[in-house]
Each structure stands twice: as C-alpha cells, then as structure tokens.
Design goal:
Helix content: 40-55%
Mean pLDDT: 85
Largest sheet: 5 strands, mixed
Structural class: alpha/beta
Strand content: 15-25%
Strand order of the largest sheet: 1-5-4-3-2
Amino acid sequence: MVVLGQLLDILGTLGACECRGPVDRDTKLRGLALYDPSDPQVAADDQVMLGVGIDTPAGAAGLLSRGDAAVVVLRGRFSLDEGVARAAREAGTPVVLVDPGVSWGQLVAVIHTLVFGEHAAAKAAAPGGLFDLADTIAGAVDGSVTIEDVQARVLAYSHRQQDVDQARLLTILGRRVPDETLAALRTQGVFAHLDDSDEPLFVPALSSELTARVVVAVRAGRELLGSVWVEVDQPLSPGQNAALVAGARVAATHLLTSRASADLERRVEADLVRSLIEGAADAPAALLRLGLPGTDLRVIALRADGGADAVLLAARHATVGFTWARPGRSALVGDVLYTVLSGGKDADAARAWVRALARDLPSDATLWAGIGGPADLSQLPASRSEADESLAVHMSDPDTELPVTYDAVWDRILLRRLAGAAAAGRMPTSGPVVDLARHDAEHGTEYVPTLRALLRAQGDLREASARLAVHPNTVRYRLRKMSEATRLELDDPRKRLAMMIALEVGAAMSE
C-alpha cells in the first residue's frame, strides 16, 4: 500500500512540483477520485483527488473547500499562492501542482500504478506492452523500431528487424547501444537534439554499419525518459512523423508507470535494507521479506563521482526490478549505496557483483567500493561499518583495485580506528616516536623513516638499509645516534609493537 510521502516523492521526479498545506507522509492512499463540479461528495479521506479542469488559484481554493481528500493533485502553469495555502491548511488537505508538461493521462497512469498496482495501471494506460507498442510504431512508419532508455539500454524492439545494419544487430543482441555507435551519434548532435526537442530527427547514414535512422524523444514534462529509433532508407513523411510522435507519447506513459512501480518497490526495499544494516528490531522480518539467507552475507558500500545523483544511477542499475533472481538488496543512504549480498564466506561473489555494476555504468563514471566482512543477521551492522571503512580506504587510495575488501585491508582499517581513537583523545607527548620526530624536525635528520624501516624489517639491518636505499653502515650509525636521542628498547616486544602502532597511526592521521 502506498503512502502520501511516497506519492509526493515520485511525483517530484516528474519535474517542477509545488506543494502547499499540511503533509502527513504516513497517510495511506487507497483510491482515486476525479473532480466533478456537479457532485457534492468530492472524495474520501484516503483518496487522491485529480483536479482536472482546475487552472487557477481560486479554482484550487474552491476545490479544497469541498472535500476531505488525502491529497489534491493539479497541473498547470499557475502558482499555488497564499490563498491556496490557507485553504489547504483550513481543509487539512495538501495540494500538489505538477508541471503542465506532464499530461493528465501520464499522471493518471503513474498514480494508478502506485495506488492499485502495476497490472491494473498498465490496462488503464494503454493496451499491450512496450514490445506491442514497438510493433505498432513499426507498422505505422514502415521501419524496424527500438525503444531505449536514457542510458541507451534497449527496453523493447519490433519483431520486424529484417535487413538491419550491424549497429542495430549489436544493439539488440547486447540489449544496449554499443559505445562506438553512441560516440558516432553524439558527434552528429543527436543526443543534444533529444535533450532540447520533441521533433523527430533524421540521421543520415554514417557508415555501412550505421545506416540512416529517425529518432524521437520520449519525454514526460521536461524530463527525458528515453527515445524511439526507426531504421529507415529516407526521411519519414509528415504522416509517419506524426505517428512516431504519437507512439513516443504512449511510450512515455508506459515508462512512467513502469518507473513508478519500480521506484515504489525500490523504496520498500530500501526501508527493509536499512532495517538490516542498522540492526533494527524488525530485522528478522525484513530478512524474510527480502528473501535473503540468515548467514554468509556481506554489506557492500558504493560511491560514485557526481555525488548522490551518480550513485542513484548506480542504484537503478543495481535494483532493476524487485525480483528474487537479482542477487543483492540495496538502499541509498545519503550518497552511499549499500547492498546486502549473499555469496558465501569468501568475497569473490561480492567482487564480481561490483565489477559487473561498474561495467554497466557510463564510461566516464568513477566508482569506489568497499566490501564488509562475512556476517549473519546479527552481524550486518558490523559488516556495514567495515564496508564504510573499506570504502574510505579505496577513496583515499583510488589506484587500489576495485573493490576494496575488509578481508584484504583489515590491518589498515585497524590502524585507522586507532588513529580515530588517538584524534579523539591525546597522543603521547613523549616517547621514542615523538622524540625522533622532534629531532628530525629540528635537525633535518631521517630517524623516523629509519625506525619504521627497522621495525618493518624486524631488526634486519640489511633489509632495512635496502628499504631506505642506503648502506647498512649508515643504518648502524643512525641507530647509535637515535639511541642517544631517545630510549629505543628495541629488544622489548611490547615496546616494538607500541612504536609500530604509533608510527602507523601517525601516518594514517596524516592521510
């Protein structure tokens, strides 16, 4: 069952969306009502009221005074002024104004999907699915058709694909437009045209493998949802162009209803995943609803350049459909995407999942990833912390191979934790490491690097000298001088361990 907050969030993705009045995001929505000026009973308090025909603030205020709807949805170019806000407060009903570029048909399809479910909405929106639509468009324009999303992934194609070029063949087989084809089309200004225009564009043949095409944008309001492509020999006639534009509008309704359903499912999934990684009381029930086992789980933390928007793109790749065939369950928290993945005690499955996700992202995107240690249900919050720490290691050293696993960098993470503890308190103001660092600063010596090399070489002078690229006698000389500057006690195991920790914590704090 959808609640008001979810409806408002999804309507907000359709472009400009203005809201006035009191909002209880937990209000449950169970039905739709259509404004009828002749009907004194406007709507129930659990229904979404669609204010078709209301195109002024006065009309909106009048509608709000007549009923008890859970929310009133309007569309138009006017603004919800203070009079509307006052009427909404007095009625206790929020009112939402959606971008006029989104048609009532598209709004009805999206809201119907959320309130009644995807299958009922699909019947209300248009007969048949996207593949049927592709066949219908192909028949109207006399050419083979593909319908693609904004990431150039193929959503549907017509059965008629005879004598298509190599680029189209590779597109259908790979379910995505090849990078070489995208680059060639981009140089012709095709994607710039799709961003700015709803008119079909004829693209002449660019090579024997990339013959002529016509493309039109699929858009809802100002948002580009995808495109429809027709392989042709020559430009379309005006009638064919009109049929193609009409088909793109129907495709927009399909994509909106599909996305609304997926967005809602993604939000439900995200709430359940947060229960797992935060150790909530309902975590056992969340685990069952997500269809995950109770053991051998790992938490993966992902970030991408571009902030939350870029990670949201990764999230949509990671959560395509709420199906049990998909291996992980994900939640976007801030600008970090967390995925709970089942894959055994080793990290191979998690590494393979991250690398497959990286391959599906645009070539100019940079992905950072950290994988927590293996966990059962009760240990998932700890695995989430380990994933965060592994992600921090990766982001501090981007040359590290993607992804970073806790199993491989636990030592660096431990030292980072010690560095954090030291930063929260106070590091020793005396002792060998502090004394040698002060001596280096005052006299230009290199005693701290020498001590680090000796400890890492476990006291082997030759190995330490090789690490420092100096003669062993130089190390011996420095060691004598270091013993004069401070009390080293290199023969005491506990002192050696403490010095190693102090050196590594200092290095971690300076990163």
